[in-house]
Amino acid sequence: KLTARLTEIWGSGREVSQSKKQRIAELHRSLTPEVREKADLSAGRIHFQNLCASCHVLYGQGGKLGPDLTGSGRADLGYLLENIVDPSAIVPAEYRMTILKLKDGRSLSGVIASSTEQTITLRALNEETTLERSEVETTTTLENSVMPEGLLHAMTSEQTRDLIAYLMHQGQVSLKK
Asked: Which pTM does this prediction carry?
């Protein structure tokens, strides 16, 4: 009972697979401080806007489906890579995907933004929807993060370097004109 209650409140965690550990180690070895110093931070900001900003806030801009990254541990390369390569390894309760099946047959998915005895507010990518609990037939909360895996797979090593260096940078950078 205690474990179930703690998971409900704090979220869940699981062991990172061996293949993801290897990917994280490869990226860690390749993204040395010398490599990151050569990054184009403005290009990294564009990659962030294209891949991450619909869900994450950084420096006051972005979406609120995922955590605000501004004050996170993003200066730690290991922490950053672990969260990008395996976003479902540790998922705080407030960022787990929830699927609501409504009595009218519709299904909605997102993260629970707020909840009272009478209502549930579900945050999706571009909107929040508040529903009366009486409209909800079932609520299913998944263990996985809303963040998809494999975000770095389609990126070149230079694009990955630029994105990671931008995420680790301690201030906003301007966009190239």
From this structure: 0.84
Q: What is the DSSP code (8-state) at residue 40?
A: -
pLDDT (tens place) for every residue of the chain, 177 residues total = 766 665 565 555 557 689 999 999 999 999 999 999 999 999 999 999 999 999 999 999 999 888 899 987 899 999 999 999 999 888 887 888 899 999 999 999 999 999 999 999 999 988 899 999 999 999 998 888 888 889 999 999 999 999 999 999 999 999 886
Interatomic CA distance for residues 28 and 54, integer angstroms:
26
Q: How far is CA 152 from CA 19, 111, 133, 161, in A?
A: 15, 24, 39, 10
Instruction: Report how far residue 20's alpha carbon sits from residue 16's, in angstroms, rounded to the nearest whole number.
Output: 6
Closest to 75 (Cα-Cα) out of 153, 145, 171:
171
Amino acid at the residue 115: S
- Provide the pairing of β-strand 119-123 with 107-115: antiparallel
The one-character DSSP state at 112 is E
Return d(Cα 62, Cα 53) in angstroms, integer: 5
| Structural tokens at position 86 | 């395996």
8 A C-beta contact, residue 29 and residue 162: no
